[in-house]
Amino acid sequence: MSSRPTQVIRFHVRHHAAVMSGEKVTTVRWQEQVAVGPATFVFGDGPTAPTLTGRVLGVETHPLPTLSAADARQPIGTDMAAFAQELRAGYYPDMPDDTEVQVVEIEVLDEPRPTRWFAERTERQRHAYARRFIDIASDGKDVDGEARLIDAMATPGSTVLDAGCGAGRITHALSVRGHRVIGVDADPILVEAGREQHPGTDLRVLDLVDLTPHVGGPFDVIVCTGNVMTYVEPGTERAILAAMATVIAPRGRVVFGFHTDRAYTVEALDQDASDVGWHLEHRFGTWNLDPFTGESDWAVSVFRSA
User: Fold this and answer.
1) What is the DSSP string of 135-170?
2) Is the CB of residue 209 less than 8 Å from the CB of residue 179?
């Protein structure tokens, strides 16, 4: 299975609505490595730029001097000389007259990827989960164990990615401890609930396999707790670690926590981590640093990047 992260295709922010609605389904590119397959569409610059999950359906190469309106999927009668000049003015100032361009056909994916989370949870259950830790905390129980451990291993003011943040419990807890934290999760119900529960916390809707440096970083720590890796789309686990590897800082730590009886095993995690160049630094049986043994039903795994 390929572990190459999902490609990123950038657009001017003015194209966001047209791409999202399906009105714009092609884009003309010059000297960009665009390939058929999954893609993240980014509109504008900066870490808060809007994104859409989609895919590239086809790529055609045409000589620019003979590029027709039909080739570029433009309206009949389009002045193609003016079209080429707009490409230069807006995107490619060094593009010569005698080059080739790529006409890229795209589509936005309306539904989230078929993760175990979406397959195993109804919408009602997802709404209930969004309140789970609020209810636990209201009973006076501790909900900050993960955040305390991450805070202890991170230097003050570290950049942290909460990968699979849910409703932002850990994102918020680390933020109030002085770290710069971004939380991402594929479930918009959880993210919206988190924004209401923790105003001002930076929470974003994003599948982990679509992580790229445009999200931010490099991050000193990536934390991925709450069985997140056991709920992703089957077969994408290694690709997710490869995507994380594009945003972790050199010598950064990546921390996972999940039950040991799930389809994605500790042994599989170790292999996938090794494949992206990380080494296992610690493994505990709980977030309170109890030893990991053959009887442990939980594994907290701390990896160090190269």
Assistant:
1) HHHHTT----HHHHHHHHHSPTT-EEEEET-TTTHH
2) no
* pLDDT recorded at residue 9: 93
Distance CA 239, CA 211 (A): 10
How far are the Cα atoms of 148, 166, 203 from residue 198, in angstroms, in the given order?
Answer: 18, 12, 9
- Please tell me whether residue 51 adopts helix, strand or coil conformation: strand
Q: What is the mean pLDDT of each run of 10 residues along the chain (306 residues)?
A: 65 87 91 90 79 89 96 92 94 96 90 84 92 92 94 97 97 97 92 92 89 88 96 95 96 98 96 97 97 97 97
What amino acid is encoded at 262 in this protein? Answer: R
Q: E-strand spans in the chain? A: 7-11, 26-29, 37-43, 51-63, 100-108, 159-163, 180-185, 203-205, 219-224, 248-259, 279-284, 298-304
0.85 exceeded by pTM:
no
195, 165 contact by CB (below 8 A): no
Query: What's the Cα-to-Cα distance from 155 to each of 149, 176, 249, rounded to whole Å?
Result: 12, 14, 13
- Segment holding 133, helix H or strand E: helix 132-138
All structural domains of the chain with their residue ranges = 7-108, 116-304
Given this model, what pLDDT does residue 110 score? 66
The pLDDT of residue 111: 67
Q: With both helix axes pointing from N to C terminus, report the angle between 145-153 and 169-176 in degrees, rounded to the nearest 10.
A: 50
Q: What single-letter amino acid sits at 234? A: P
Bridging pattern class, strands 298-304 and 248-259:
antiparallel
Q: Which two tokens stand for residue 97?
A: 């007259």
Q: Tell me the CATH number for domain 116-304.
A: 3.40.50.150
Architecture of domain 7-108: Roll (3.10)
